[in-house]
Amino acid sequence: MNPLLLVIMVVFAIAAILAVIRIAVGPSILDRVVAADVLLTEVMCVLGADMAINHHTRTLPVLIVVAAVGVFGSIAVARYVARRDNTPS
Predict the structure, then answer these.
(1) What angle do CA 71, 74, 79 make, to 5 degrees?
(2) Dihedral through CA 40, CA 43, CA 44, CA 50, nearest 10?
(3) How far apart are CA 57 and CA 41, in angstroms?
(4) Angle of helix 3-25 versus helix 29-54 axis, rounded to 10
(5) How many CB atoms lie within 10 A of CB 79?
(6) Which candidate, 64, 61, 76, places its Cα nearest to that of 30?
(7) Mind telling me which residue stretches traverse the membrane in this protein (predicted)?
(8) Using CA atoms, how far apart are residues 28 and 35, in angstroms rounded to an integer?
(9) Which of 4, 14, 22, 79 has CB 3.0 to 4.6 Å from 35, enough for a Cys bridge?
(10) Alpha helix locations (H) across the chain?
């Protein structure tokens, strides 16, 4: 195995573990959403790296769906938080 590939896998694994910890421990819903976005971005980077290393585009539809889920999920949570903050107490 290529040593550079091993280093990349370790870095992505550490970043994913830290993002999952932030999702579990995050003090607010916005912190959890940002951590989920980071995790989805990591998944997208891993899929892109797989496509580049193995010279294929089979996972491109999965990459597009993951990106769309991340964007629409963030928008939905932002709208929810904005509406919740605007309601009179």
Answers:
(1) 125
(2) 180
(3) 18
(4) 160
(5) 10
(6) 76
(7) 6-25, 59-82
(8) 11
(9) 22
(10) 3-25, 29-54, 60-86
Q: Two tokens at 24?
A: 């579990």
Residues belonging to the chain? 89
Residue at 78: amino acid letter? A
56 SS3 class = coil
| Average pLDDT, integer, range 45-61 | 91
| Token pair 């280093």: residue | 7
The residue ranges of every structural domain in the chain are 3-86
Q: What are phi and psi of 55, to 5 degrees?
A: 55, 55
Alpha carbons within 13 angstroms on the beta-carbon side of residue 15 total 16
Structure tokens at 33: 């959403």
For the cut 70, the answer to whether the pLDDT of residue 81 exceeds it is: yes
pLDDT at 89 over 70: no
pTM of the model: 0.84
